[in-house]
Amino acid sequence: MLRKQLSGLIGAAALAGGLLMGGTATAEDKIGFIYVGPIGDHGWTYRHELGRQAIQKEFGDKVKTTFVESVKESSSEPVIRQMAADGYKLIFTTSFGFMNPTLKVAKQFPDVKFEHATGYKRADNVSTYSSRFYEGRYVVGKIAGKMTKSNVIGYVGSFPIPEVVRGINAMTLAARSVNPDVTVKVAWVNTWYDPGKEGDAAKALIDQGADIILQHTDSPAPLQVAENRGVWAVGQASDMTKFAPKAQLTAIIDNWDGYYIARTKAVLDGTWKSEDTWGGLKSGMVELAPYNEAIPADVVALAEETRKGIEDGSILPFAGPFNKQDGSVGAKEGEALDDGTLLGLNWYVEGVEGKLPK
Amino acid sequence: MSGFDWLVPVFLTVITAATPLVFAALGELVTEKSGVLNLGVEGMMLVGAVSGFITVLATGNYFLAVGAAALAGAIMAFLFGILTLSLMANQVATGLALTLFGVGLSALMGQDFVGEPVAALTKLNIAGLSDIPFIGPILFGQDALVYFSFIMVAVVSWFLYKTKAGLVLRAVGDSHNAAHSIGYPVIAIRYMAVMFGGAMSGIGGAYLSLAYTPMWAENMTAGRGWIALALIVFATWKPGLVLVGAYMFGGITILQLHAQAAGLNVPSQVLSMLPYLATIIVLVLISKDESRIRKHAPACIGKIFHPAA
Question: Which spans are transmembrane here (chain B) (predicted)?
């Protein structure tokens, strides 16, 4: 905690110093990034950093990109303000907790454009963007339903928030659509990042009969456990095949490159507008890592068919009919959950075991 | 076979969860027994973890790796010693700084190694013995560091309570002025105790990066250094109880994950706080009986020694 706070402050100080030194006027537009973690986290922040690099590559000398990493959410405001005050044209703040600081600073700098990831508050100069990771989970669910022999799928959860619950539900619906006997066991670790505990949760799930491990936490430890125990697993945020060359079925990858380039272009062209973007497989924000060679061809075909169906809109992961965990109707035949419901999803679908912590 | 077969994997997981805590807490216990409070356990563990990991990648030799981790931890502790023992800086503040420093230093050292997998430390496999149902895999199927942790508990107990050197170390921790006045080198003894603590923390860290989750990731100890510090108070500074505490702590963590996976309807947040709750309850219980604490707690802990005085 303290470390992040300190490094945030140091980041702000370094930024201020850098800005003072780089005072000579240049024609290039400055684009800033505020990261919540280190760029070496091999997950969330790492993928945003790749997006920043993609902007730099695309626009070359026309833009200058800068980032401040490991900024604690509660002390992010001065860091954001410093960037805005120094004439940055566009600032990406890439964690949910940066929401209020971003809005506060945006009010004081109406000419600066802001892009806030995973939040829900917007302003004339603040856009929001997020990713429909659950679409990837739905494809993975089809594979998992076909590949499981024990009919038990284990899921390592971080925090019981809608984003994570959506993934569990989408995966469960998909798995049960191809294999109605599937049940899903969830172990909540109450952290985004603790390799030891994530690994222990995977072990507990495997000991209770799971032969496929999914996770919504940030370290590759669960995949490593799966590799050692000889069960399947699915990578998270990045391709984690290095940690589990035999066990990784595929991985759900965040890809912000396209969005970041498009928004930068809009600022350069003067066409930028405040918007809310929730992209998925179709927009390329969510990608799947190459399928494991051990997956039979018909299962790969099913997965690809599902992926294409989601992309062209013919498959909606949360289309009815399906029941909630308590047996009541989740969505009727011919209906599907709308985005509003999905954003606040706080119940399990049928097939998930245990009670959702509130 | 028997109805208790499911317990075997639970036990195996508990052992891996407890071992890093045993190492770190045991080392810090010796440090504290000499009258020094080093809150930098987390930082020393991290530097040990990354040093051990880099050594294995470079040499493939786990023995060397554990040695490197111990050395790295001891160097960190030596730094702490220079500041607090020779320069007489405040121990609490310096210890916290050491943790922050260790977090940053280990991240810097490990920068190029994030995402590099290594093979896990091999488990012992004694033909015949490891195959005995139930107790076989638990007693005879562990990696070398697990056995080493048990040996160290015995060695530390023996050293502190059965040797003259241990008696001197405890004397230094209980009254540095008295120890000094009868001619014991207080500062030198504390340097050794602090560096032993650092080395053990380093080994605890290496257990994480080599056996528990064989990889390097920033901040991978995730607070275990602080748990180790709590365990010492929990154990009222007794090595044997450190072992019990570490296994209880690991046990509750693992059991709560199993309870969730089994679909028990207990809120996971409650289960997650159980180990900490247990620590607090035990702290309250032992605080009621002051003599128990006073008997084993080093009286001079955290106090700065001015040799001139």
Answer: 6-27, 39-58, 64-85, 92-109, 144-161, 182-210, 266-286
